[in-house]
Structure formats: C-alpha cells, structure tokens
Amino acid sequence: MADITEEAKEAADLAIALQESEAVHIEVTATDKCNCSCEYCFEQDHCTEHMSEDKQQKIASLLREYCDSMSSSRSPSLYLSFWGGEPFLNFSFIDRVLRETVKHKFVQWHIYTNGLVTDAIDKLVTADYFEEARDRLEVQFSYDGEPHNTQKRKHDGKTTIENAKKLARAGVQVKFKATLSYDMIDKLPQIWESYRDLHEEMSCYETADV
Ligand code: SF4
C-alpha cells in the first residue's frame, strides 16, 4: 500500500498543476478507524487504525502550504473532503486542518460521517472558528432509513439524526446518503417513507438537503 504521506503529496502536486481549474477537490482519510460495524462494509477489518501523529502533521502542513500558495495566485475554489473509517473519531486532525485553512475564503470542507461521535460534533459547533467556517462546511450523514439502518449494527439511527439536526440548526449544510443492500430490497417502500418523513421534519432547516 502506498504511504499516505506520499499520497497526500501527490494530491497536493496534482492540485498545484490544476491551479487554472475552476475547482480542486482533495479527499483526505482522517482515520481508518470506525465505531460502527455495518454488515455491508467493504472495509471490515481494516477499520482499526489512526494514521500516525507525524503523518497527520505532514498532511496538515501540506494543505496549509498549498492554501498559502494558492492565495497569492488566481484562486480556484478548494474542496477538502474528510473520509474514514469514521472521520470524527480523529476530530483533532479535522480541527487542525479547519483551523489552519479557515482564513482562506476559497476553501470549502466536506465531512462524510456516520454521525455517532457526538462529543466531536459538539466540539465542532463550539469551536472558535465555527462561525467563520459554517457557511463553507457540508456534512454528509450515512443514514440508510428505517428499518435498513439496523444493518449498522451498533446503532439504530437516532443518534445520527439528532446530530444531523444539531448541525442543520447551527447553519451547516447537511446531506444524507443511504447505502441499500440487495437483501433489503423488499423494505424499499419503508425506507423511502422514513426518508420522506425526515424530509418533512427537516424542511424547516434551510441547510438540510434530504
Ligand atoms: S460507518 Fe462506514 S466505515 Fe464504518 S463500518 Fe459502516 S460503512 Fe464501514
């Protein structure tokens, strides 16, 4: 497997080469760890490790240096996307990158989460940079509707929905993504109804996209 620092360096080099583009998109795996054990997860036993502190520092530095270099040139928008595992399990890394890039108005962030790490989500909405960042922040929740969400074996979806509402109320752009496995196909009408109910419930939040 390629070293993650090398991958980040390649991504940064590629991004520099694309400076004339309208937008540059960089995906960062904040951690391989996950606190869930979905039956359909293709990562399975790989979801056990954080990257080392040294690598986290190097990636954060590369991103900061890249942003600094972009700010003195024609600046396309930069879209930083955090994936896992469960990225909020390594919130200190996300926090570091947000903190170091928030001053650059061309940067936007995306976090793809199962929505279960409540303490990290609480830290995000109370961070001192949150007001400055929230209009450029999108959080996408992995939520499979009911009853399909029972395949996320360690939870029933309630925590995910509560944390999604919390972020939507705080002004963060919130989205949902369902993974539908073949053996649940007969439950599709119920899953659709649960999504429709969620849409009706959250349509009062301008930032919710259900
Ligand atoms: S939340 Fe995502 S990474 Fe974690 S077990 Fe489920 S599918 Fe895998």
What does it look like?
This protein has seven helices and six strands, in the order H-E-H-E-H-E-H-H-E-H-E-H-E. The protein has a six-stranded parallel beta sheet. Helix 1 packs parallel to helix 2 and helix 2 (53-71) packs parallel to helix 3. The radius of gyration is 18 Å and the shape is globular. The protein has a single domain (4-8, 22-209), classed as Aldolase class I (TIM Barrel, Alpha-Beta Barrel). The longest helix has 19 residues, at 53-71. The mean pLDDT is 85. The protein starts with a helix and ends with a strand. With 210 residues, it is an alpha/beta fold. It has helices at 4-17, 53-71, 91-101, 118-126, 130-133, 158-169, 188-202, and strands at residues 23-29, 77-83, 107-113, 137-142, 173-177, 208-209. The chain binds iron/sulfur cluster. The site of iron/sulfur cluster has 13 residues, from loops.
